User: Fold this.
Amino acid sequence: MTAAAQHPPSRRAFVTGVSGGIGGAIAQLLLTRGWAVWGTARAETGWAACQLQPGFHGVVLDLTDREGTLKKFTDCWHEAGGFDVIINNAGYGVFAPFTTLSAAELDQQLAAMVTTTSALIGVQMAALRGLETGILLNVSSLAVEFPLPFMAGYNMAKAALSALSESLMMECAGTGIVVIDFRPGDIKTGFNQVMAARAAVAMARTPDPRVSAAWHTLEAHLDAAPSAASAALAMWRAIQRRRSGVVRSGGVFQARIAPVLVRLIPERLARIIRWRYFGLTTRG
Ligand SMILES: NC(=O)c1ccc[n+]([C@@H]2O[C@H](COP(=O)([O-])OP(=O)(O)OC[C@H]3O[C@@H](n4cnc5c(N)ncnc54)[C@H](OP(=O)(O)O)[C@@H]3O)[C@@H](O)[C@H]2O)c1
Assistant:
């Protein structure tokens, strides 16, 4: 492949959540390959690592502000003259037993990660349909296939996002638009740090030892997980393939072996293995 083909000029991407983790890594990767990137964070300090690179445009965007989010995207679309790739990456987890999760916490998470994100995707899809080309990549999670313990709101939000991606794949079949449901397994980012304070409250409030066992297992898995750069590379390869579908990224067991294995064994056995994996029980 020639250098020009590897680094096509004036490609434009819109990426939410570039302040670190997977979003930061894909923004950096695109910028170093000569792309122009409109990257979002909730505060201007969030894009410090990107702003020195030519082609970066910082955007303050908070998914808890639905109207503001839609307007920001539309403004960026016009400023950029359209996007070749749109990556909906921003998201967060809340670790708490469901019975201790307040209605307000659940509402806020679902509003940001489902209601606003899907409204945003609606506006993005309409814009892409106007061009009849482009790639929409939604960052979901392997939690869709392997739900995480004491993270019901997160599991619900990602299941909804993957269902939306699958629906849009159908709607875009035969058009020039590619829809990718990108599902990372554990990736070493600040994801757990964001949840840590709420997790500490959850553990202090419940006598159930399974809550702290699950949290420590999640922490151990994330500590030993592949880097955000490796997830960004998998994302970049998916973008280059230009093929709609589900793309899993992460460690070999989580992202490759487990999704196949789970189809080959009885559902009940898969559930027992999953519970043990998270330190929830030693019995079925
Ligand atoms: N790390 C993993 O193991 C893993 C596994 C599966 C899926 N994922 C998914 O991958 C995506 C990126 O996560 P990450 O691991 O890179 O975590 P991260 O380092 O915590 O990054 C999350 C990003 O989302 C942004 N964000 C959070 N809440 C937001 C809101 N209300 N409005 C706008 N932006 C918001 C954050 O921006 P601020 O800096 O402004 O808060 C940050 O840039 C998420 O959707 C996550 O669910 C991660």
